[in-house]
Amino acid sequence: MSTTALPAQQAASRRTLQVDSTVPSNSPSPSGSPFDSPQRSPSSTSLSSLSDAESSKKPLGPSRLVDTYGNEFKLPDYTIKDIRDAIPAHCYERSAVKGFSYIARDVLSLAVTFYIFHRYVTPDTISSSVLRAGLWAVYTFIQGLFGTGLWVIAHECGHQAFSASKRLNNAVGFVIHSALLVPFFSWKISHGKHHKATGNLERDMVFCPPTREQYTSAYGKLTHEIHELTEDTPIVSFLSLVGQQLVGWPMYVFINSTGHNNHEKQNEGKGDRKKNGLFGGVNHFAPSSPLFDKKDEYLILWSDLGLLLAIGTLYYLGQRCGWYNVLVWYFLPYLWVNHWLGVHEAGSEADKSAVAITYLQHTDPSLPHYSAESWNFTRGAAATIDRDFWPIGPHIFHGIIETHVLHHYVSTIPFYNADEATEAVKPVMGRHYRSDTRGGALGFLKSLWRSQRTCQYVEPIEGTQGEEKGVMFFRNCNGIGVPPAKLSSKM
Question: Rounded to whole angstroms, how far apart are CA atoms 19 and 252?
Answer without folding.
Answer: 36
